[in-house]
Amino acid sequence: MRYRINTERIELFDVNVLIVMQVHLNEAVPFDAISRAFYDACDLHEILNSRVEIDEAGEAFYVDYYKPRRTISITDLSLEEIISSNEKVRFRIEEGEYLKAFVSLDKITFLMHHLGGDGKSLLYFIETFMNCLSGKKCEKVPFCHTTLDSLPGNGKLPFFYSVITKIWNRKWTKQRRVFTYADMDRSYSDFWSKKKTRVEIRKYEKDELNALLKSTKDSGVSLTSYFITKMVRDAGIKAAIGLAADARSGGNKSMGNQVTGTSITFGYNESKSFDDNAKTVHELLRKKIENDTEKYFTLYFMGRLDPTLRDALNLERAGYYHSSLTSKVAEHLGFGSKIRDISITNLTRVDIPLSYHGYEIKDIVFVPPVVSYAKNVIGIVTTGDVMTVTRHFYDD
Are 345 and 307 within 8 A, CB to CB? Predict the structure, then answer.
């Protein structure tokens, strides 16, 4: 196994790439059984048996690794305490560390580095884990790697943006720097000495969820559009909003970072009803998601930049590295002083089973990372009759 990291490269030097899911089971399970299932599930996923290698030219690769670092432990910490104590600790991806787990009575909290996959990936790992826990024999799961050539339109950029990437790459060549894991360590240390995040959790039980779904259906809008409208109205601002979108092909259940993103700008119009505002948001999102050029633009564009320039943008945002070029590019791409107000990921209703031979998943809490280009990150997931909405943000 040797896969060049391209579309996922922006996650390599980001100092906040912690994807979190807490699974609430119908009963407490002995730690030994959970631990065995965790390690067995890790063995089955190809990407969790690799590590990240950065070569002298600055290219990064997933490569086979037969002694990956994996940890699972018992804890009495709350979910927010688990996140707070771990967000400052860098995953040793050079040693194959993409995933950690913490067990507390009937709850299991999984922490994954974004290079291990996206939110859907973690759901599919949980499915493997639950099957292993219930004693089911599982097949190995290959890594699904997204490349520019595999994207719709073969990753072609509109001419203007293609020219921009070439200009920036040419200017970067004059000062090009290959960053190392030592740089990663120092940037983490510097950044997290001054930062802390908070998590707010809101659960919608069956009756409340059904009422909300009926309301959005009657209005002809999605839940995502509803929440965006509500947040922008409550904030009282014209907001830059990012939306994560699934980039999987063929309905695969492989782990891997198979997500894209698009964005809109929206300001709540007080002269219109809430429903009319929500319909405006819904239409803006629909036009973005249904147009492949718009939906995959971020992957097309960032994939054309020199990989070490992408690293520098994250380190610029973290306050570790600075140059006039990276500062300018960071401002243009939303890594500078003007970042998105809201970034939202809706995993919708989970597409994994909830019952596993006596074990039941009662609900799941999903907390996306506060990535470098967003202030407030919203994670939404529906498990059976329960929908959980989280807001993850810096506590400044």
Answer: no
